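Key idea: predict the complex, not the pieces.
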Amino acid sequence: QQQVKQSPQSLIVQKGGISIINCAYENTAFDYFPWYQQFPGKGPALLIAIRPDVSEKKEGRFTISFNKSAKQFSLHIMDSQPGDSATYFCAARGGFKTIFGAGTRLFVKA
Amino acid sequence: DTGVSQDPRHKITKRGQNVTFRCDPISEHNRLYWYRQTLGQGPEFLTYFQNEAQLEKSRLLSDRFSAERPKGSFSTLEIQRTEQGDSAMYLCASSSPLAQGPSSYNEQFFGPGTRLTVL
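Result:
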């Protein structure tokens, strides 16, 4: 019930394309869903986040779509750039504990 | 740099040795978290402090692991009698209970991590 399942494990996208990463959760007590970006040798950094009372959140090229009834949420990266190449983690938080997905390694081809 | 700092960045040790890592959170943050991240996985929660009180420990934190935050500022994570399975990146994060904006919601800010290799 504590798991957050993330797919795909890896993703290759052409420059200018759309990158889509999906996540699913089971615990309905989660009340905050952040996405993190991690570059090699660095800690994760918050990219964008959403609360379950909202179905979509957009910040620049990054959009979260949230489906509360299906307990699924996804990250869309529009106009993907080589600089977006990194590992992306979805997460779900209940109280102070954050549960992370296994990560998606994104590579954007120039 | 006013972010979360961790020391050392890398540690190589032999099996059976003790190691200690330090985390300095963002100065006004009273909440501090330790995570462990193995290769190809997301961070796994280890423990949580609010000020100097350790309020939650994961079952992942065996009795060989101990964490402290004696004055509610920096924190240390000690691993005794290290095993090869302890090899991982140990991440520290801090947060403040005060809202920091519409999308932050008591957001955790991560440090760069300490990479531990146990030979």
